[in-house]
Structures are given as structure tokens and as C-alpha cells.
């Protein structure tokens, strides 16, 4: 692990993840505060903020405010930075507008068809970045009302769709677990527990019927995942939410460990970001380390080491 850790130290944007998630410093410790300041000043982070596209929808993939905030929250950017407030306001305005609900909320066969990842990330970002207010409460309230009987969310408008979507459930789970932790809200905690079952009953990547891989992209590693799902993102969220000790995580943990490289790091096996042509959907204004089956990716490695540390699987 030492070689991988030393390589991670060269990326300032990973200072908080290294300090808190990998090395175990307390989130309220002076070390964590210094690491957050390093993240704030990291060239990658400054570039990400500077190139955020506010001329289009906050949901513009992947340089809109919604996505920029989600990444900043994930990297451990310090809370309460007023420079980010305009991005948060854009995001709130997008998901809480009457026009948005009118155009995108559908109830089919008694189930609300909504992309819960959208309200989920807006709520989670507001909590992580220090902008939570009554609008966060409203976003959480909507997620609670829209939760499906099996514990998740889905935007599939086909009437026969009766199971929750991994992509639309993981991020609401992340948001509700954090909201419950901060507020003590029992309903949010119970909803997070139900959402976790969507993943745990499928061992995070297997069909319940035949035990086969649900989707080949689920077992490949990416960073950032944005709204997509893979086993590492699933394991990370379940770790944050307090469910990683469930024995049904074992198969996904074994699979993650099998991807470890000789230097102790982990590769990025696919990418959802386009490094060029900012006018197109899917553009990222910064590089996330590239993909390779043989070379470690620092962003993937930081998350993988965090998960493995929390289940005592680091070597």
C-alpha cells in the first residue's frame, strides 16, 4: 500500500481523502482542516470551479453546477465557502422549480417516476458544502414521498417497470443517510435502510434470480461516476451510510480486491467524461487520471483504499 499512498500524495485534490478516508484522521481534526484547505487551493479544483458552465442548465453534463458541486463535496471541499453559493442557488432553483416538477414528475401504476439522483445530489451537496436550509428539507421530503415499495427510486416510464434503479437509488441513499446523521431524522434513517436493501439483496451487482452480473459496467471502476453506478461507488456509499459490515457486501469487496495492481493501486477501467469539446454533453473541464488496466488511477485508488480500510482488508 505504501507505494500507492505516496503516489496519491502528489495530487492536492486528494489531500482530504488521503488524510481522513485513507489514513483515518478525524473529520474535525486540525489535520482534516489543513487537508480541506489544500483541496480548496488544488489546481484541479480551482479549474473545475472556474470552468463551471453557468450559461446552461446546472445539470449540463459534466460541467454544470450540479455536477461540479457533487465532485467538490466528494473531494472534501471545505464547507461554507460563499464563492460556491451561486452554484448551489442554481441547483436549488433547478430542482425546486414548479416547471421542473410539472414537466418531469409522473405517477404510473401508483409509482412516482423520478430520477431520484437529481434531488438526491442537490440535498447531499447542500449538506456536505454547508448550504443546507429549508430547501434541503423539502428535497428530502420529496425523496421520502417518492420512494418505491422496494426501497428505491426509478424514472422508468414503462408501466411494467416495478423494481428500483441502482442509478437512481444510490445517490438518494447517500443523501438520506447523511441527512439522518446530521439531523437525527428517524424517517430519513429508515428510508436509507430500505434503500440499502436494494443493493444488499443483490450483493451490489448480481441479479437475484440467477446470480449473474446485472450490468457489465457495474463491475468496472470509474471516477467520477456522476449518476452512474459501479461496485466501488456502491461500496463507498454503503460505507459512508454504515452498511459496509453487512456480509452481503463480501462478493463486491472480493471483486474490488481482485482488481488491485502490483503497486497497491487500482485502475480506472472506464470513463464517462469527455476531455474535449466543451459544447457537448459529457464534457469534463479537468482530467481524472485516464483509464488503463495496468496503471493505477489516483482517484479510484483513494476510494478503494478507504473502503478496504473500513473493513480491515488493507494489506
SSE diagram, text form:
Layout: H1 2-8, H2 15-22, H3 30-41, H4 43-50, H5 65-75, H6 85-96, H7 98-104, E1 106-108, E2 111-113, H8 116-128, H9 134-146, H10 166-183, H11 186-200, H12 231-241, H13 250-258, H14 298-310
Antiparallel strand pairs: 1-2
Question: Features of this protein?
Answer:
mainly alpha; Glycosyltransferase; globular; 315 residues
Overall description:
There is one protein chain. Helix content is 50%, strand content 2%. By secondary structure, it is mainly alpha-helical. It has a single domain (2-310), classed as Glycosyltransferase. It has a two-stranded antiparallel sheet. Strand 1 and strand 2 (111-113) form a beta hairpin. Helix 2 (15-22) packs parallel to helix 14 and helix 12 crosses helix 14 (298-310). The longest helix is centred in the middle third of the chain and has 18 residues, at 166-183. The radius of gyration is 19 Å and the shape is globular. It starts with a helix and ends in a 5-residue tail after the last helix. The mean pLDDT is 96.
The gist of it:
The protein is built from 14 helices and 2 strands, in the order H-H-H-H-H-H-H-E-E-H-H-H-H-H-H-H. It has helices at about 1-10, 15-20, 30-40, 45-50, 65-75, 85-95, 100-105, 115-130, 135-145, 165-185, 185-200, 230-240, 250-260, 300-310; strands at about 105-110, 110-115.
Helical stretch tally: 14
Query: Could you say what the CATH architecture is?
Result: Alpha/alpha barrel
**Total number of domains:** 1
CATH topology: Glycosyltransferase
In one word, what is the shape? globular
The mean pLDDT is 96
SS-based class: mainly alpha
Level-1 CATH class name: Mainly Alpha
- Rg over CA atoms: 19 Å
Low-confidence runs of at least 5 consecutive residues: none
H and E order: HHHHHHHEEHHHHHHH
Span from first to last CA?
A: 7 Å
Please state roughly what percent of the residues sit in beta strands, choosing from under 5%, 5-15%, 15-25%, 25-35%, 35-45% or over 45%: under 5%
Helix content: 40-55%
Taking the sheet with the most strands, its summary is: 2 strands, antiparallel
**Strand order in space, largest sheet:** 1-2
Number of strands: 2
